[in-house]
Design brief:
Oligomer: single chain
Structural class: alpha+beta
Radius of gyration: 28 Å
Length: 878
């Protein structure tokens, strides 16, 4: 019987932006961006617990030497053990080749039992992977300036490499293999069942058109219906494949490697999300099909390199396939937001840089062309007509709790019969648009709150559809500076607009480092505002943004490199590309001359022409220095000169900015330093003989602050005569990594002991709050917010004398929550486990103690653990 509930009051945090102070000395000083760093809007009380799980079993998979009979026997043993323990689940898939285990669907109340069954090595959540929403317009079909940013245009025109003979797998929404970009003859073939084609030579549709794994979608349909035709009804995969290797001379569309052949592995339906076990199944098929390169422009954010898709991807590299994956679009979620499989130890995890130009339709105001991007779910804007524009301000209905009485923003003008101009931020685009349209606006312009234009979505069709478009911060400021009345004219024209964020890291690109402090991302490529192919039934061509677009630039570049240097070992490709990459200036204020942080851009911008022509390589090609509390870090370096001429390199280092704070990144300069030595003596240069090798060491003294920041920089090898500059990025953590608090209370005062009542969680703070019957879902639930990734968590049951009984759950490699208010849940169903046995706890009063081992923590060091003990609770079965 319910006696009382302890409820929680939710608060909204306010981010304060300080005044920028220029820094010219080596001392550490904070630096602030000219525009706000993107942040995730607070999303209240969000349960991020999965209901689909990977179950990893003890033996290695078959690619690592286990026999198929052993892996299959372990699965039979797991099924038998689960049945004996009364664990109810639905098996989805079984894996033997790249990873040994199963994927299952299970109620969260049953999950703790699975993790304790004999033969189970670990369990991992199966992430629901959202499909990026494509933005389309019938632009002139070309990749435009992006190829020039990476040197791919020079490789094609001067070095004459096109990727011929290389097989590239694209795991995505499929490929419109009827498109002239992939037909092999520049002519569209309209029969979707004519497969394979001359260029899309193999593939499989794992899911079918109707599949959609997003439970929040009205079109939720999580049951796959596979078939043999991986055609694309969404567009994302066709766009990605076009960047890799479109070859459409008739329509002037050329990808990075226009003569590759493709494997199309479709893991999305026409809309919505997929799941990471389907990705794993597609990876196994790409291996069996003998692909040379795999591009995955999808991933699971906030994960570990030990996540199943990341581990499987690294095993693909061991088997000779180069794996390229987007690092993720979670930049607004701060540090440690990089995703799997891009986090994989041997995977190339790719960041995104903005294109130098973007082709846009435009409207005109006082002879100025203003480019815009139509939001998803908006009707198309008119192509003629003149209207007045009026500035309304922020335009939210319930902007934030700081507004007196929680009232709507006051409008700064009357939009009735006019085009409304509003500022991006604080509420959704749909909310801004609906309010303005209800007030009589004929269209809505949304001004960005950071440099450049942006792709936006209204979330759903508007009740009263009117055009809604995004414009740049600069153009919005221009409109606001004009004398009223401000008249604008729609046009039917498109034009190239220089991007104010050209060659800067895209604001959406995810931050590393990896939770084990490995250096991620590895490097980047153009991903912001990229033109490419699109399904013919959707117009044939489109512009899109994301690390989804940067990853195929790298996959295509890998194909060029493999053609240019046949026989190159798959595991060596990443280092070759890192050595020649070009670090870029800080996106927050490029004029200051600071290099952007290594945990955001990795080695820098891909330069495939330099990589192919390079005659010097340095290994390792990246350095993870770990925690600075260990003191200076020494790294041995091997320099190989494959030319017939000796070369002498001057040895220097360049610091990048340091970044701290997980959910709201803040930036500062770095005082890290590097000393080079050879045979124990300091050196400032090194000579490598013709076809020779030199071995030196770099002693990296970490940055002294700020505490808990991620610092980094570049070892720079500059030839004294002609030749290429070679760089090696380094990065590490300032201070004691285990000083990061993981079990943070947040505004909700987590962790909670809770009851699930009528679909909602209520906090239980006293045994008299609630008595648990342990029937029909009436279990004690434990709600935990993880501010950082955790190495492991154990849930021990205590009796009222404080004696530790047995655990009811143990989990390994837990991801952090995606937002400051998110949480995970664990249910205690009255069973504890030891060895191969389950024990039923008798009725009585108990507590649960959570023991959390921090990332890279030493299990024998008490300082590396965090603990929380729940309030007492009563079990009284009827």
């Amino acid at each position: 019987m319910v006696k009382r509930f302890s409820l929680t009051v939710f608060m909204v945090l306010v981010l304060a932006i300080t005044t920028f102070v220029p820094v010219y000395a080596q001392e550490i000083q904070p630096v602030d961006p000219m525009n706000p760093v993107p942040t995730v809007e607070l999303d209240g009380f969000v349960d991020e617990t999965a209901n689909l799980w990977f179950v990893e079993l003890n033996s290695n998979p078959t690619v690592d030497g286990a026999s198929l009979s052993v892996t299959k026997a372990e699965k039979r043993a797991f099924r038998d053990a689960a049945r004996r323990a009364g664990v109810k689940y639905t098996e989805r898939m079984a894996f033997d080749t790249l990873w040994n285990g199963l994927s299952i669907k299970i109620d969260k109340s049953q999950l703790s039992a699975v993790s304790m069954l004999p033969g189970v090595k670990a369990v991992y959540p199966i992430e629901t992977v959202a499909m990026p929403i494509p933005y389309t317009d019938p632009y002139e079909p070309e990749l435009y300036t992006a190829l020039a940013q990476t040197g791919a245009d020079l490789v094609q025109s001067q070095l004459e490499f096109t990727g011929a003979g290389i097989k590239v797998a694209v795991m995505d929404t499929g490929i419109d293999y009827n498109h002239p970009a992939f037909s092999g003859n520049g002519v569209a073939e309209m029969d979707s069942h004519t497969f394979p084609t001359a260029r899309v030579v193999t593939g499989w549709d794992f899911v079918g058109d109707s599949y959609n794994a997003d439970p929040a979608s009205a079109a939720y349909q999580p049951v796959p219906h596979p078939d043999a035709y991986p055609d694309d009804c969404n567009g994302h995969g066709t766009h990605v494949a076009g960047i890799v290797g479109a070859n459409d001379a008739t329509n002037d569309l050329t990808g990075v490697a226009p003569d590759v052949t493709f494997g199309a592995y479709r893991v999305f339906g026409c809309e919505g999300s997929t799941e990471s076990d389907i990705m794993l199944a597609a990876m196994e098929m790409a291996l069996s099909d003998g692909m040379d390169v795999l591009n995955m422009s999808i991933g699971s954010a906030f994960q570990w390199p030990q996540y199943p898709t990341a581990v499987a991807a690294s095993r693909l590299v061991d088997k000779g396939m180069v794996v390229v994956a987007s690092i993720g679009n979670s930049g607004a979620s701060g540090l440690y937001s990089a995703g799997a499989p891009g986090l994989g130890e041997k995977v190339i995890g790719v960041a995104s840089f903005d294109n130098t130009n973007v082709m846009l339709p435009y409207l005109t105001v006082n002879s100025r062309n203003i480019g815009y991007i139509t939001m998803t779910f908006s009707p198309n804007p008119p192509t003629s007509g003149t209207e007045e524009v009026v500035w309304l301000g922020r335009g939210c209905v319930d902007a934030d709790l700081a507004l007196a009485g929680n009232q709507p923003d006051p409008y700064l003008g009357d939009p009735n019969g006019k085009v409304a101009l509003v500022q991006r931020g604080f509420c959704t685009f749909g909310e801004k648009a609906n309010r303005a349209i209800a007030a009589g606006a004929t269209a809505v312009l949304v001004q960005n709150n950071a440099l450049g234009v942006f792709n936006g979505t209204l979330g759903a069709a508007l009740p009263d559809p009117k055009p809604v478009v995004g414009i740049s911060l600069e153009d919005g400021n221009f409109l606001r500076s004009q004398t009223a009345p401000v008249m604008m004219t729609w046009t039917d024209q498109i034009a190239s607009f220089a991007s104010p964020t050209a060659n800067q890291i895209s604001s959406f690109s995810s931050y590393g480092l990896s939770p084990d402090l490995a250096l991620k991302p590895d490097f980047g490529a153009p991903g912001g505002n990229i033109y490419s192919s699109f399904p013919l039934e959707k117009g044939g061509y489109a512009t899109m943004s994301g690390t989804s677009m940067s990853s195929p630039h790298v996959a295509g570049a890998v194909a060029l490199l493999l053609q240019a240097k046949p026989g190159t070992v798959a595991a060596d490709i990443r280092g070759i590309l890192q050595n020649s990459a070009d670090p870029k200036s800080w996106f927050g204020n490029p004029a200051l001359g600071f290099l952007d942080s290594v945990n955001h851009q990795g080695a820098g911008m891909l330069k495939i022409d330099k990589a192919i022509q390079a005659t010097t390589s340095i290994t390792p090609a990246k350095i993870a220095t770990g925690e600075s509390q260990a003191g200076p870090f020494t790294q041995s370096l091997k320099i190989v000169n494959s030319s017939a001429t000796a070369v002498t390199y001057d040895l220097t280092a360049a610091n990048a900015l340091t970044v701290r704070n997980t959910f709201a990144p803040a930036f500062s300069t770095s005082d890290a330093s590097v000393m080079f030595t050879k045979d124990g003596l300091p050196i400032t240069s090194v000579t490598v003989g013709a076809n020779g090798v030199a071995n030196i060491k770099a002693v990296i003294t970490p940055a002294s602050g700020p505490n808990k920041g991620q610092y980094g920089g570049y070892l720079v090898f500059t030839p004294q005569e002609t030749g290429q500059v070679v760089r090696v990025p380094f990065a590490g953590f300032v201070g004691d990594y285990q000083s990061i608090q993981v079990l943070t209370p947040t505004a909700n005062n987590f962790p909670w002991l809770a009851v699930l009542y009528e679909g909602a969680y209520y906090q239980v703070t006293d045994p008299t709050d609630w008595t648990f019957t342990m029937k029909d879902g009436d279990f004690p639930y434990f709600l935990v917010h993880l501010d950082h990734q955790a190495r492991s968590m154990k849930f021990d049951v205590l009796d009222m004398t404080g004696k530790v009984l047995k655990p009811f759950a143990v989990e390994e490699y837990l991801p952090r929550n995606s937002s400051a208010n998110g949480f995970y849940t664990w249910a205690f169903v009255g069973l504890t486990f030891a060895g191969n046995k389950a024990f039923t706890i008798p009725d009585g009063t108990y507590q649960v103690k959570i023991s959390l081992l921090k990332a890279l923590g030493n299990k024998d060091n008490p300082a590396d653990w965090e603990y929380w003990t729940s309030p007492a609770f009563v079990i009284d079965r009827p």
